[in-house]
TrEMBL record:
Residues 15-235 form the Glucosamine/galactosamine-6-phosphate isomerase domain. GO terms for biological process: carbohydrate metabolic process; glucosamine catabolic process; N-acetylglucosamine catabolic process; N-acetylneuraminate catabolic process. Belongs to the glucosamine/galactosamine-6-phosphate isomerase family. Residues 106-133 form a coiled coil. The keyword Transit peptide does not apply. It catalyses: alpha-D-glucosamine 6-phosphate + H2O = beta-D-fructose 6-phosphate + NH4(+). One of its GO terms (cellular component) is cytoplasm. This is Glucosamine-6-phosphate isomerase. The keyword Ubl conjugation does not apply. GO terms for molecular function: glucosamine-6-phosphate deaminase activity; identical protein binding. It comes from the Eukaryota. Keywords: Carbohydrate metabolism, Coiled coil, Hydrolase.
């Protein structure tokens, strides 16, 4: 696992957007079979600087999303796509409407689906049909959750419905007018779904994530901190800011800062 430590969230955004750009450009350099690049995406405040930079790269014609297929991590149950607090709305407002992605290439779980099980099974099938996910970008909850895989989620879980913890409802209430509006359930890809991706990149910024980052990388793999599963991934990278390293050992921080000086994306 790589740990890239940057000074602030804007530098994290710059770095992660460069990683995504490089992976997409490298992928199409040698591709002749027409298979698109498949990108997994998160919502939340952490990826916003990444989306901003990717939009700027698209506007400067450095990158195209014409042959990119996306799968979002999760969606609240019960919110229509047009609902201003839905993850559908978030993704179109903050990213998709500003780039040249084809509407049919965007996949986001339908939180209003009557048959959750069918919706989740179809999502897994669509990921397979697309050829699997090349790069899954993620954030992390303050309790170390990845997507909506709350503490005690199975580390081999697939896409399914999850009940949100009280902690997550309180933390995510900042995006709603009041806490009673926060849905209590969500559809989410599983930890296993994320682990099947060819590469995983997690963004961790701010002091509030410091304990989760420590648990994710300096302690053992645990279903209590589901992001810690990435210790078992073949190609995983965490990109964090200085504030998020507050609970790490000095020698861990020094080690990764030294290793990653002048490293390639
Ligand atoms: N389901 C999302 C996660 O995918 C996200 O990583 C987390 C952190 O969000 P933020 O980046 O706003 O801290 O929030 C939600 O719970």
């Amino acid at each position: 696992m790589r740990l890239i430590i940057k000074n602030n969230s804007s530098e994290v955004g710059e770095y992660v957007s460069q990683v995504i750009k490089k992976r997409i450009l490298d992928y199409f350099k040698n591709r002749t079979d027409g298979r698109p690049f498949v990108l997994g995406l998160p919502t939340g405040s952490s990826p916003l600087p990444v989306y901003k930079k990717l939009i700027e790269m698209y506007q400067r014609k450095e990158i195209s999303f014409e042959n990119v297929v996306t799968f979002n991590m999760d969606e609240y149950c019960g919110l229509e796509a047009e609902h201003p607090f839905s993850y559908h709305y978030f993704m179109w407002e903050n990213f998709f409407k500003h780039i040249n992605i084809k509407k049919e290439n965007v996949h986001i779980l339908d939180g209003t689906a009557k048959d959750h099980e069918k919706e989740c099974a179809q999502y897994e099938e669509e990921i397979q049909k697309a050829g699997g996910i090349d790069l899954f970008l993620g954030g992390m909850g303050v309790d170390g959750h990845i997507a909506f895989n709350e503490p005690c989620s199975s580390l081999s879980s697939r896409t399914r419905i999850k009940t949100l913890t009280r902690d997550t409802i309180i933390v995510n209430s900042r995006f709603f007018d009041n806490i009673n509006q926060v849905p209590t359930r969500a559809l989410t890809v599983g930890v296993g779904t994320i682990m099947d991706s060819r590469e995983v990149v997690l963004i961790v910024t701010g002091h509030s994530k410091a304990l989760a980052l420590y648990k994710t990388i300096e302690e053992g793999v645990s279903h209590m901190w589901t992001a810690s599963a990435i210790q078992m991934h073949k190609k995983a990278m965490i990109v964090c800011d200085d504030d998020a390293t507050d609970e790490l050992k000095v020698k861990t921080v020094k080690y990764f800062k030294e290793v990653e000086t002048n490293s390639e994306y």
